[in-house]
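user: can you give me the structure for this one chain? tokens are fine.
assistant: on it. calling the predictor now.
[tool input]
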Amino acid sequence: MSIETRVAVISIIVGNEDAAQKINEILHEYREYVIGRMGIPYRSKGISIISVAVDAPQEKISALSGRIGRLPGISAKTAYSNVISEVEIR
């Protein structure tokens, strides 16, 4: 049996510093799909910018982005690539 995965980037704007721990907990739950991540503090504006590259089934990407985006003071948007793969599961 196989599943279809997509490569995407989730862009996160963190306006509520108190949510950082919860973001990290959620990303940890989805760690098997994370290709890499980059965080940039923008101190003069009081925000942080996080980019997370993932390779996952569509529903996992949507769930991850949705969970993060529902946190107070957080904005999350996803950009999908045209890279779609079939992955064998056991």
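assistant: here you go. The chain has a mean pLDDT of 95. The domain at 2-88 is CATH 3.30.70.1150 (Alpha-Beta Plaits).
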